[in-house]
Specification:
alpha+beta; three-stranded antiparallel sheet; binds iron/sulfur cluster
Length: 253
Amino acid sequence: MRDGNALPEHLEPIGERERFSFLCHPAIACFGECCRRLRLMLTPYDVVRLREGLKLPSREFIERFTIMEFRPPSYVPVLFLKMEEGGDQTCPFLSKEGCSVYSHRPSACRIYPVARATRYHSVHGVLMESFFLVKEPHCRGFEESREWNIFEWFSDQGLEKYHRLNDEWTRIVMSPKLKGGLTAHQQELFYMATYELGMFRKLVSSPKFRNAFGINDGIGEEDDERLLDFGLKWLAFSLLGETETLQQGKGGP
Ligand code: SF4
Ligand code: SF4
């Protein structure tokens, strides 16, 4: 019997230098099983990368592929991938050959079968990480002989860039300063600066916004990754009162 504080049975803690055996490949018996019956949260950077692969503007991607929820306690808008309707709730990107957006797949798909929990030290404010193996019964990858440690796995899966932007987004979403809940107007701004970058680009390009925040370089006119980076700094400034982050984000005083 499990008590209320115990980890779910399929989660196994693992140290960052410990080794584990795992390999996922098209010939494995369970191929594609993990792309069904899942609830897949999309971080803002996941959306940037998926849109890049699918060559879709933000609004069209959001309308076609996502469902929005407001998550307590801050009631920040968060997007989830809309699964295909029907019994298996299959990911819309699963094809006979496997993942059709493989080079642009979301961070949750990259990190699997590892889970990473993060929190910020209450005194020093540094990011603290802990890791788990997700040993679900359907996944046969653990029977393979290829060995990794956690950081080798992250590097192989191209996760470093995802972690940087995902961690900053999570830090804002989980901030105790937002625990009273966002107003409807703040929710709109949050949504725009994280997911609806087409709309955010228009705001950032306006002379009024650029004058108000002292922006004097090309933020927002180039790539979405840079615009999202700026959007997170702008939210940290506007919602958490962190002036120094915006100074760094705008490319100079
Ligand atoms: S269930 Fe595991 S081994 Fe099978 S396809 Fe998914 S990740 Fe790969
Ligand atoms: S995005 Fe690709 S890897 Fe992720 S659930 Fe969908 S098909 Fe599977």
